[in-house]
Amino acid sequence: MPMMAGFRHPATNCLPEMAMPSSGDLKAEVAIIGAGPGGAVTAMLLAEAGCDVLLLEEGPDLPLDSALHFSSDEVAQKYRNGGVTVGIGEAKMAYVEGRCVGGGSEVNRGLYSRAPANVLAAWRRDFLIDGLTDAEMKSHYEACEQVARVSNLPGQAPPLSQRLHEGASRLGWKAEEIPRLVTYQRDAKSGRMIGRKQSMTETFVPRFIQAGGRLLPGARALRLSRYGGQWQVRTRSLENSKSARRFDLMAKTVIVAGGATQTPVLLRRSGITRNIGDNLRFHPMIKVVAAFSEEINPPGQLDPVHQIKQFDPRFSMGCSISSRPLLALALVDHPEHLVEVERNWRHMGIYYVQTTGGRGVVRTLPAFSDAFVRLRYSSEDMRELGEGLQKLGECLFAAGAVALYPGIAGSPVLRSLEDLKRIPVELPKERASLSALHLFSTCPMGENEFRCATDSFGKVRGTDGLYVSDSSLLPGATIVNPQGSVMAIAHRNALRFIEKRAVASGQRY
Ligand SMILES: Cc1cc2nc3c(=O)[nH]c(=O)nc-3n(C[C@H](O)[C@H](O)[C@H](O)COP(=O)(O)OP(=O)(O)OC[C@H]3O[C@@H](n4cnc5c(N)ncnc54)[C@H](O)[C@@H]3O)c2cc1C
Question: What letter does residue 413 receive in the DSSP assignment?
Fold first, then answer.
């Protein structure tokens, strides 16, 4: 495959400042739109099977360590809209998405889980999905775990994590360390263990390029149309604002992998709307900052990894990275206590409750390029979050917390078990600061034609050569961290595509 201007070169792994290809330059057998976990896994498998693949990504192509993890630089470089994306509804909700080669895998914590067998069973039953059994999915999870390795902590958990675990143990609740897509090694200089994330730019993307795949970052697909038996992808280059312009890409097959909000936006803009964007599901999250009398947040500790699983599938609890700026952000509902962060941040940690009840729709608006996300919360959803927050408070007080600052505007600081009664049983929609990191289900797969946007393997209904391969396909909440399932389902569907392609071209498979 000849290299073209603007593509990442396999030998150097870096993108020189070059103009985008001019109109008519671009042709591929398969165009994949979006280089997050779904797109990257699919791209690698197809390129290694000998397909001519072009992987288009709206965001920049940056190394994993181009910015400090969870820093404002990282947010500016690698998040969509600088990290400010808001869903509209009775309760406001901020959601965040990666926008770079590697997508969410570059900015997330890499906490890794396989979808539980009962979740897969419910998806099969409700959406009439062929296969997708626990036994079938095992090989796909394993294959992805071989490329992007999953590890447990090499030693003791960091104090933020230990506190959550101790609190849960004292209450007799189940809490566990969640493995991560991270490899650990000892830093020669400091002697400390450090982790390196197994994000897409560290794993699947280099293998894709090694196999001859072409990566085009800084290019947003705007619209799809059929032209002469092929797909035409109207594209706008964004990498270099001075030369931003439109061009077309022609491909026999298009696989859309823009993530749970952007995939339905592209399909709907292209006039493909059946069951597209109607079934957004997400894990709503509410945070609490806990202050302890001892130091629990020393600089340089490994990321916290424990989660409480006692109340699954209704809600789970965990701990977040608690750097000084993130603590300040988490105290936004308690502005009068922000000074505490300056004085006391090594004694403070951010903890969260996450439920599975979030629902909504994704739509497009004329003359508005972003996704319009409308959310619905029932009283039951807000009660679950309220109960989860109460339980998290119990756990943190059992772990020795002396003050809790819940993410509810106007809430008092809670200083005792008795104070937990001041958390409303049903969280007030207009005052709760909700957020979400895990979004899915906007193009559910399956044979239930009243609910599913694609067939059981990601082929968009009523179209020829058009597929989806990302978190949009997952038909419901994963309950656990979703990236492992996004990758495993992309792996499964890509193998199916390769098999059908081989049969169609008369090759033996
Ligand atoms: C801060 C954060 C923390 C998280 N923590 C975890 C965790 O610890 N564990 C876990 O399992 N999950 C976690 N997640 C969720 C996980 O990252 C996502 O589930 C996963 O990345 C979804 O993969 P995807 O391929 O569906 O989409 P994405 O990762 O969103 O990738 C889609 C890519 O497509 C690109 N794109 C979109 N539209 C277009 C277009 N029109 N043209 C060209 N390119 C386009 C986007 O720029 C993006 O790079 C976290 C997410 C975030 C944001």
Answer: P
